[in-house]
Amino acid sequence: MSSVDQAKNAEVFLEDTVHEERLDKLLWLMRMRRDAAARQVPEWEELRTLASDIKEHTLSNLSHYLIEFDANGNR
Amino acid sequence: MEVALMIPCYIDAFYPQVGIATLELLERLGVDVVYPKEQTCCGQPMANSGCYEEARATEDHCAHVFGSFKYVVTPSGSCTHHVRNKFTAGADSPEKENLVRNTYDLVEFLHDVLKVREFPWATFEHKVAFHTSCSAIRGLNMASMTERVHDPVFSKPKALLSGVRGVQIVDFDRVDECCGFGGTFSVTEEAVAAKMGYDKLAFMQKASPDCIVSSDMSCLMHLQGCARRQKQDIPFLHVAEILNGVSL
User: Fold this and answer.
1) Nearest CA in chain B to A45
2) I want to staple B46 with a disulfide (CB 3.0 to 4.6 A). Which of A7, A54, B54, B67 is the partner?
3) Around Cβ B230, how many Cβ atoms within 10 Å?
């Protein structure tokens, strides 16, 4: 597998200021929409924490879930 | 009250006036300041570049020098964050445990321990664009995070600054986005780091501040470098300088 020169690629991308500015605006617009959505859900932070816990639990027990998935898939 | 003053290496080398302002400010507030002369560095530059082996001796030395004090104060959110939350390269010892527990950023120490809110010796009739570092916000909880939209809005450094006569803190967009410095990030990812710095300056400039202020001089070192390359001559100040009564 060839390695990616992230720093060099970023430098080339940033030289194209038109695309960079549009991407920046778009990404920030997504952030603003995300904030607007979060404001409408009072339990947003609890849900984030729960999602984070689920992710951590799943990654920590991945072998168990993969074996279970395999067994169920082959049933 | 006895306090050991820890002066970050980059402040010692590039911004000695910030170390002096911190010392003078603490002494104005009646604190008995001790400056251990054998101090060097907290180890952060090595540790957060992944060089744990290289950080070990420095962290051990830091723990040995500062490990017997009840309060260790440093004018740097990132050094405080390193000592409090990331101090894992050196050997475990009672001295290290003591240092980890007793290290405070200057703003935290003034706001939470001394609970100072007024700085009557200082007047600063200027518009301030205040930058809070990522380590101060996310590592030390010194200010609320804009993405946590249901949390109460607060900022310990701004609360202190508003105790200085004349200070006008201006609002700008994307207030808690990173300045782009990120320690060695600015070395390994120079183009992105510089662009982030230029963006940060542009958002601040829209608010027409008279100066740019932070509780982390490392962020300001990066932003100042960006500003110089754009031939902007706006002053950059550490919050300690304003609280101590500096004039522009």
Assistant:
1) B148
2) B54
3) 12
Give the count of alpha carbons within 13 A of B152, CB side only.
Answer: 4
Q: Does B150 touch chain A (CB under 8 A)?
A: yes
Q: Classify residue A15 by its DSSP letter.
A: H
Counting as low any pLDDT under 50, the low residues of chain B are: none
Cβ–Cβ under 8 Å, residues B43 and B136: no
The answer to whether B247 faces chain A, any CB pair under 8 Å, is no
Q: What CA–CA distance (Å, rounded) separates A20 from A34? A: 21
Is B142 within 8 Å of B77 (Cβ atoms)? yes
Q: How far is B111 from chain A (nearest CA, A)?
A: 27
What ipTM does this complex have?
0.83
Other beta carbons within 10 angstroms of residue B76's beta carbon come to 31
- Asked if A7's CB is within 8 angstroms of B190's CB, the reply is yes
- B90-107 pLDDT, tens digit each: 999 999 999 999 999 999
By Cβ distance, the residue of A10, A39, A44 closest to B192 is A10
> What's the residue count for chain B?
248
User: DSSP letters along chain B, please?
Assistant: -EEEE---HHHHHH-HHHHHHHHHHHHHTT-EEE--TT----SHHHHTTT-HHHHHHHHHHHHHHHTT-S-EEES-HHHHHHHHH---SS---HHHHHHHHHEEEHHHIIIIIS-----TT-B--SEEEEE--HIIIIIT--B--TT-TTSPP-BHHHHHHTTSBT-EEPP-SSTTS--S-TTTHHHHTHHHHHHHHHHHHHHHHTT--SEEEES-HHHHHHHHHHHHHTT----EEEHHHHHTT---
Predicted structure pTM score: 0.93
Chain A contact for B189, CB < 8 A?
Answer: yes
Beta bridge partners of B187: none
